[in-house]
User: Fold these one by one.
Assistant:
Number 1:
Amino acid sequence: MLTTLVKNRKSAFIAQSCRCFYCDFPMWESDCSSFAQTHKISLRRAKQFQCTAEHLVARQDGGKDAAQNIVAACLWCNQTRHKRKLAKNPSDYRSFVRRRLTGNRQYHQVGNDVFCVVEIMGGKQSVATKLGVEEIEIEHWIDDHYVPTRYAEKIHELTGWSVWSIQVPPVGWG
């Protein structure tokens, strides 16, 4: 028997077209391996896109498991929102995330910035060709959450987008 919370998460997942309430990235509900294969990402990376139930009003603040209080959010966004010292309310957090994404300041700055830019640039093979590196190097960058500085600069030259390099924030970040 499914709990009310699980039922409401599933309903939100479907209503949101399998996309995160905050970042609007696709999510998976039950098959991480298929998701990873479909999106050509590692299992480790795919786990960040697991669908979770997000309470718009937290339980600790009196929020219930009711449908109108539950949205579907990827594990990364859900955890990242709650790790902030002063967690933003869901509406403000969603705006913050969307601003970061639409401003080419990738929201998943530690988890998915490299992945996002690689996807936007046409995938690992395309980026490897453009940068003159092996595709396996791109996979390492995605898994390690950074791009070596010389390649981050080249990506910026080619696209105008900024990615995180080793201990160096993107141009214009802040």
Note: Residues 104-112, 166-174 have pLDDT under 50 and may be disordered.
Number 2:
Amino acid sequence: MSKDEGNTTSSSTKRTIGRRRIGIIVGAILAFVAFLAGLSQITGVTITGLFHGGQPQGSHSTATVSPSGQNNTPTIVTSATRPPSNHSSTATPTPTATSTPTPTPTPSPTITPTTPPPPPPYNERTANSTSPTFTNYTNAGGTQGQTVPAYTTIQVTCAISGFKVADGNPWWYRIASSPWNNAFYAPADNFCNNGQNCTNLSDGPWVDPNVPMC
């Protein structure tokens, strides 16, 4: 064998060994990529995440290995797809607070107390006797007023219990007519006590039931 033939055989052997090494490396890379692909399906970790420090959660990546050029150097191509965000970038306007006007309170009407009017006077008539009048009905005393004549009709305001006269009648009338003007009292025993005429005082009641109490 000549020297040139020996060099040619040596070069051919080296190329063959080099190709085998490249094939072994490519096979190892393909096996490694397949291992990573299987691992990503189990753990969710992608190849891009391994080489670039991870990727956003929910993204997907694919890897392909293809020979490139005459040196058969494997090229890893990755693609990542980011899922759409669930959050809208549109800002929600803040509602503006609306002030409610405070209603003006309505003043309560002023109620002025009123004094009830006095009861209307009632007519009472003496019979065949007169009737004395006094300012104190409790003891038939005080100041004695003008005597009510017989068969005279006067107006009284009310009746009240006081001094008992001879037959035991305790009722008295406050006289509204002038000149007594509600300042004097007369014994009801001297009146017919029915608002009308009478012939006998003993036949009538001790006091007119229609006259209110004082």
Note: The mean pLDDT is 76.
Number 3:
Amino acid sequence: MSSEGRNIVYIGPEKHIVTQAVENRLPEAGLNVISLLPDIDKINRQRDSADIFLCYADYSSPKTEAVMHYLSDLCSDEHRSMCLIVDNAAAREQVMKMKSAQRAAHIYTRPLNLNDIVDDLTELSKAYEEFRRTKTLLVVDDDEDFFMIMKQWLKKDYNIVGVSSGIEAVRYLKNNTQPDFAGLRNARSRWLRCNAIASRDAADLRNSDYFSYRRRRS
């Protein structure tokens, strides 16, 4: 997990015109650039510094392919984003033949439009900040044991609030900041269910390990 949502790890050669452009323009937009040489050991030491990796894919360098494969695996395994910079259309076509390039969120071709890069990376950074934010889950159930189970399951990832009835839930919603999710149990059918409301992350909740199934209560 990244410690700073606005950190960008840039991977490229020192004192290159692309490196200088990135290091000068991105901080002006509030993005903190961590510059690294295309070396897997150096990248690995900074792997937790950011959610976004911007790599200058210099196909003439023998290290480029190995670095891209490493970044592709890292981004796939840890839900990070990789963006690439290439020299020209021919280099872009060559890079796109590499399986690792399929993980790239954006590919930029020189000459660069730095404003487009800033806009894309800022949007990605905001998305990761929202993703990392601790969400609030409102659980509606009059079974205290059930609530404690839910809280134990989810406390590492969510701020859990419990109420014992629909009336209390409505009162909570009127008097507090609306939660990201609300879950209720359908006691009549004796099924465990969860309905997501007022959340851009509804699909995330429905697809989570906790709510992607139904189970009968004993």
Note: Confidence is low (pLDDT under 50) at residues 186-218.
